[in-house]
Specification:
The chain is of the alpha/beta class. It has a single domain, classed as NAD(P)-binding Rossmann-like Domain (Rossmann fold, 3-Layer(aba) Sandwich), CATH 3.40.50. It is 52% helix and 17% strand. The chain is built from six helices and six strands, in the order E-H-E-H-E-H-E-H-E-H-E-H. Strands 3-2-1-4-5-6 form a six-stranded parallel β-sheet, sandwiched between helices. Helix 3 runs parallel beside helix 4. The radius of gyration is 16 Å and the shape is globular.
């Protein structure tokens, strides 16, 4: 289906840091067009500059994925700039590191808004574009804590929510040629797993 990554439009949320940054750089090196989103311009613009310096093609989109208008702006701008979206990677997330008994309502809502609502809004808007085209791939990045790693309540709740959202999105979008997949990993393994899955999808076509 993908026929390699050259000139494929890859939209990555939370692309300024962590796995989002690693994925943006990897796709840029592979010939894809990288649409890199983050709420803060500092890190994501550095990522975009690095990709472009290396001969790749990338552009930054500074918006809050927790806001519907922001998401609509991203999708419209990417469509205007590159003509569509081939791959969406939902990576944007926040984690305040506040224990359940100490967490205030603002922290709780902000984590749910970014991690879960953001993925919903991005998947909904990009999914409509992909449905019209009849193809596309949407990834949900889920951070699964290790046995010795402590995560706080709101973050863990959103990770479970993402699994459910991804499953339902897969059911609704698969008849339209859109693949929805979850990646439960951390670090550079994320890049390897996503590239491997995309290769498998291409071979299956």
């Amino acid at each position: 289906m993908m026929k390699g990554f050259k000139d494929k439009v890859v939209l990555i949320t939370g692309a300024g840091r962590g796995s989002g940054r690693n994925l943006a750089l990897a796709f840029g090196q592979s010939g894809a067009i990288v649409a890199a989103n983050d709420i803060s311009p500092v890190n994501v613009e550095a990522v975009v500059d690095e990709i472009n310096r290396q001969g790749g093609h990338a552009k930054a989109y500074i918006e809050d994925v927790a806001k519907k208008l922001g998401v609509q702006n991203i999708i419209k701008q990417v469509e205007d700039d590159f003509g569509g979206i081939d791959i969406l990677i939902n990576h944007a997330s926040v984690e305040p590191h506040v224990p359940l008994l100490d967490m205030d309502e603002w922290d709780w809502h902000r984590v749910l808004d970014v991690n879960l609502t953001g993925a919903f809004l991005m998947t909904q808007s990009a999914g409509r574009v992909m449905r019209e085209k009849g193809s596309g791939v949407i990834f949900f990045l889920i951070t699964a804590p290790t046995r010795d790693e402590k995560k706080e309540a709101a973050f863990v709740a959103t990770m479970h929510g993402l699994r459910g959202l991804a499953g339902q999105a897969a059911q609704e979008l698969s008849p339209h040629g859109v693949h929805v997949l979850t990646i439960e990993s951390q670090g550079r393994e994320v890049v390897e797993k996503i590239f491997s899955l995309l290769d498998s999808l291409e071979e299956a076509e």
